[in-house]
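Bench notes, afternoon.
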Amino acid sequence: MIYLKPFIPDDYDFLNSWISNEHELIQFSGGIFQYPIDKEQIKEYLNDSRRYSFKVTFTESHDNGLLNTQTIGMAEIYREDNKTSKLCRVLIGHPDMRGKGLGKKIIRLLLNKAFDDMACEYVHLNVYDWNVGAIKCYEQVGFVKNPLINQHVMVDGKQWTTINMSIDKSRWQSAIYE
């Protein structure tokens, strides 16, 4: 099972162990952090009252009845206004947990929180256009591309382009019952 738990400053050790260079940090954070991440950056980051940051935990049960829980990632909902939120900094950091379909489960949990708990009507996100796996994940959950909204950043002399994707509450409700 996947769970979202509040991200606290001490969780920065996990995040720091998953980000091994500046490119990975830009891909994950969009430039909100400076490499290497330190505890002061995390404290400042968590000080924003519109930011709902989560560590992602994975719990599996074994035949002997024991549970194994590990922190595998991070995710964020950023509350832009009363009806709009943005999903940010979604990361399955634990390499052994990637490629197992957990991204869709994480996004669904985030959307449940945004639409049900926070009463949002609209959720969007940005993703780099070369991150094909993430784009497919978001589309499978119901997000659609907004072709007129994109941004460009220069990373080591190369242009990275972000694609904006969105989903509204009615589309989300239709997707859950398909």
